[in-house]
Amino acid sequence: MARYDFCHTAHDEALGIDTIYDVECEVELSVELDAGVPAVMVDGVYLNGKNLFAGNALSKALAAEIANAAAADDALISRAIAGEGYVYRGLGGNDPDGRFVRAL
Questions:
Q1: pLDDT digits over 3-26, tens only?
Q2: pTM
Q3: CB-based burial of residue 31 (10 Å sphere; 0-12 exposed, 13-18 middle, 19+ buried)?
Q4: What is the mean pLDDT of the chain?
Q5: How far is CA 61 from CA 3, 21, 58, 65, 76, in A?
Q6: How far, in Å, CA of 55 to CA of 83, rounded?
């Protein structure tokens, strides 16, 4: 598990407005192979060194919002996969022998 810097603005779909701007935090991500493909999980959202999932209802709701945004951020997911040392070995997506391996 490693922590990565992340910035998120919470948007309220029902009202069509941003409600919380530029929350600069850290997300703790873990990477595991699931059927041979790296799967990234958000294990924590930290603000000022505190895990928001351990706070009150508002903190937990904000943590869930940030965790969902982090899980959908392709650039962050790619950084986490590379940061944990997973690389694809093969001749492309159609290679039957291609697979992800951990190369640390």
A1: 999 999 999 889 999 999 999 999
A2: 0.84
A3: buried
A4: 91
A5: 20, 15, 5, 6, 21
A6: 28
